[in-house]
Amino acid sequence: MKILVRSALALACLSLLGTTWSWARRDDTYLPAASPSGPGTVSVLTYNVHGAPWPITFGRSAKLRQIADRLQRLRAEGRAPGVIVLQEAFSGDAQVIRKTAGYAYTAVGAGKDEAGAGTMTPFDQVFADGARWWKGETEGKLVGSGLQILSDYPILAVHRMAFPAFACAGWDCLANKGALMVTLAVPGGPPVDVVTTHLNSRHASAVPDARSNYAYGRQVEMLTAFIRAKHDRAHPLIVAGDFNVGPVPPRREALLTEARNWAGDETIRDAMHEYRRDGGRMSADAAFSFHRARDWQFYAAGTTRRIGLLGIEVPFGFEPSGGMLSDHVGYVARYRLDTPAATALATTSGRAKA
User: Fold this and answer.
1) Which residues in 209-236 are b (16+ Cβ under 10 Å) and which e?
2) How far is residue 292 from each of residues 4, 31, 122, 225, 327, measured CA to CA in Å?
3) What CA–CA distances, in Å, run from 301 to 18, 19, 221, 295, 309?
4) How many Å apart are CA 252 and CA 258, to the nearest integer?
5) 176 and 144 in contact (C-beta within 8 Å)?
6) CA separation, residue 223 to residues 126, 217, 242, 340, 352 (Å)
7) What is the Cα 329 distance to its own chain's centre?
8) How many other β-carbons are positioned within 10 Å of the β-carbon of residue 347?
9) 158 Cβ contact list (under 8 Å, min separation 6)
């Protein structure tokens, strides 16, 4: 009976992680312009689709179907992003996105039974000793990572990881959060590495900030270790997802400090800030996402292929009728990919000799 009570409480309270917010109506929601699809460009949509299963959330089927239908329509119009990274694609209803959107290649993150690896420090042990079942921290994983990557480009390699059981806080512990990396054969040069992740929430975890922020810091460190171990520095790198930063200086500092180590000697940039620095005009939806600071896209050049930002577009923001299809904005960053002349010459020469 105690186990049943715990499970029921866990399922009920995990709904906090999927709280649906009400926002003021915005009048300038727009679909992205036709994205370049030729060699030398890649576009990435990051979107937390709020796809937790019943009874964690209720009544999501229709909106998840609308997300899928919009992606299908964008494809029919030649406007679909080349790559989509999804978070919270947990439920069977959420799978309609993958099945409907028309992407030839897919990869999924860790399932609920995939154990995360990691060595506990003495501080981790003290943290783990403070776990409480009534906060969902000792009941194991009820769902997997919820991570998916959909791609028009062939997937050459897949790497996934789950954060260890001690590196989570509150109701977030019921999901097997982690990271997912793919290497994509984007035309025009060497491959591109794309990573998505979903990090520990703060208030929605229903534990004190000190506890959720400790877990957050450890997750960011483990994300860094994962990227450094799996990313080929010859490739451009894009890291996009739900980073759950928000207006919290310790989280922002932890993330940005670690992000500097993801790409070796190459400079890591985030798309939203770079777009603003370059004088780009943000829609109200993009500005809302920027100030909310949950959903980020970072990028860095590789040694054999450079990368630069072309623009930011929002296919999933506030609907004309009010509200959103998820509790997050889904935005597209478009990137230019360039192969340095020396690398291109060497590649051409090698092909000629072959």
Assistant:
1) eebbbbbbbbbbbbbbebbeebbebebb
2) 37, 21, 34, 27, 11
3) 35, 37, 21, 21, 11
4) 10
5) yes
6) 22, 10, 13, 29, 40
7) 12
8) 14
9) 107, 180, 181, 182, 183
pLDDT of residue 203: 72
15 CB burial (10 A radius; 0-12, 13-18, 19+) = middle
Instruction: For residues 312 and 43, give the distance between their C-alpha atoms in angstroms, rounded to a whole number.
Output: 9
pLDDT of residue 58: 65
Q: Give the pLDDT confidence score for residue 91 in this predicted structure.
A: 84
Beta-sheet strand order (sheet of 269-270): 155-162, 178-184, 192-198, 237-242, 295-300, 269-270
Displacement of CA 326 from its chain's centroid (Å): 14
Q: Which residues neighbour 35 within 8 Å (Cβ) at sequence distance 6 or greater?
A: 41, 43, 79, 80, 81, 82, 313, 332, 334
Contact 59, 12 (CB under 8 A): no
Q: With beta carbons less than 8 A apart as the criterion, state whether 66 and 325 touch.
A: yes
The strand pair at 192-198 and 237-242 is best described as: parallel
The series of mean pLDDT values per 10 residues for the chain, 354 residues long, is 41 43 34 54 97 71 94 96 97 89 97 89 90 84 95 98 94 94 97 98 79 94 98 98 94 97 96 95 96 97 97 97 94 93 43 34
Fold of 2-17+33-353: Deoxyribonuclease I; Chain A (3.60.10)
Tokens representing residue 142 in the block: 């009820």
Structure token pair of residue 189: 């040069």
226: CB partners within 8 A, 6+ apart: 159, 161, 179, 181
How far from the centroid of its chain's Cα atoms is residue 7's Cα? 28
Q: At what angle do helices 249-259 and 209-230 cross, to 10 degrees?
A: 10
